[in-house]
Structure to design on (333 residues):
């Protein structure tokens, strides 16, 4: 049985498979409300732009709605795409949300992933440029959260004695890098940030890199997101979960660099490859898989990314697993 002291969260991608944006947004909020009621500890919401399927473009607006409808669950940006946004506005929004939520924010950041349209419309010619802009934007945000006049003369941003208001409640807000690249590992180690592995990251590589970081840093905040589906009957869970994972890269319209496609997203990926990188099955199988993750990764936060694109099916899966894990339901909010 997995350690019930481990933190379990839900990773939401704001998916719109049926072309009904209002319903997709409301279903995402409902996922978060249900997750809190079931006893999950965190809810993380992804940011994407210019996609008809992943419509979480107004990340802070959506998290504000979730904050207003919940009281306990922690609220993560999974992740805030700093290269595409004004860092001072992001700093103001996150600080305001931290105050309104009574200090529940977790600040995950990323450069933007394999979606070139996002970079093109932001005037960024490459992923490397987006990464550099993200790092400098994070410097701006953390400087602005110090509560004193702040100046920076950087490559992308120039501020002279700007003083941010309001300031966040948490001192500090936890910062996470949603990447397992060598650059991200080095930056996180130097600055003490947490690390987050995305749902499609190859588990073998993740295990190796986490072990190396722990040898260097000791224990550090680490979260791993995994595609997830659970049903009472294993064959139905496998059929629905595997189909959802296989459909995902097409629906997201991902464009990986040559040689960069994760094993589970490759066109010829076997069921075994997908299942080795996901949590799919009946309750006993899912619990066993979670136990294996704990053995391989040590202390971590597990973030469950629903593989099913049917909201009722996704919430039923979360409920079934919560019961199997012995999570403690919270009172209605």
């Amino acid at each position: 049985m997995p350690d019930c002291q481990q933190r379990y969260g839900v990773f939401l991608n704001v998916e719109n498979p049926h072309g009904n944006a209002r319903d997709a947004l409301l279903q995402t909020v409902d996922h978060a409300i249900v997750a809190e009621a079931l006893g999950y500890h965190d809810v993380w919401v992804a940011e994407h732009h210019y996609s008809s399927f992943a419509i979480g473009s107004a990340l802070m607006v959506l998290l504000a709605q979730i904050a207003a409808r919940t009281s306990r669950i922690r609220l993560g940006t999974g992740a805030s795409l700093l290269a595409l946004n004004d860092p001072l506005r992001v700093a103001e929004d996150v600080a305001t949300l931290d105050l309104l939520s009574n200090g529940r924010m977790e600040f995950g950041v990323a450069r933007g992933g394999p979606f070139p349209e996002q970079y093109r419309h932001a005037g960024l010619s490459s992923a490397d440029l987006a990464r550099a802009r993200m790092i400098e934007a994070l410097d701006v945000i953390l400087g602005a959260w110090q509560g004193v006049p702040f100046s920076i003369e950087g490559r992308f941003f120039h501020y002279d004695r700007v003083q941010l208001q309001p300031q966040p409640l948490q001192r500090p807000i936890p910062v996470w890098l949603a990447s397992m690249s060598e650059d991200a590992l080095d930056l996180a180690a130097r600055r003490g940030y947490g690390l987050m592995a995305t749902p499609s990251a190859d588990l073998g590589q993740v295990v190796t890199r986490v072990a190396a970081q722990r040898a260097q840093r000791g224990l550090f905040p680490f979260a791993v997101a995994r595609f997830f589906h659970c049903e009472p009957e294993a064959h139905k869970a496998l059929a629905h979960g595997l189909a959802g994972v296989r459909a995902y890269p097409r629906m997201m319209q991902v464009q990986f660099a040559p040689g960069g496609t994760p094993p589970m997203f490759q066109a010829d990926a076997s069921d075994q490859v997908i299942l080795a990188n996901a949590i799919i099955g009946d309750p006993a199988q899912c619990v066993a898989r979670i136990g294996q993750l704990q053995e391989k990764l040590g202390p971590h936060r597990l973030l469950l990314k629903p593989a099913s694109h049917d909201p009722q099916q996704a919430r039923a899966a979360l409920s079934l697993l919560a019961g199997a894990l012995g999570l403690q339901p919270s009172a209605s909010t």
Remarks:
- The CA atoms of residues 60 and 93 lie 7 Å apart.
- The chain has a mean pLDDT of 94.
- The longest strand covers residues 222-230.
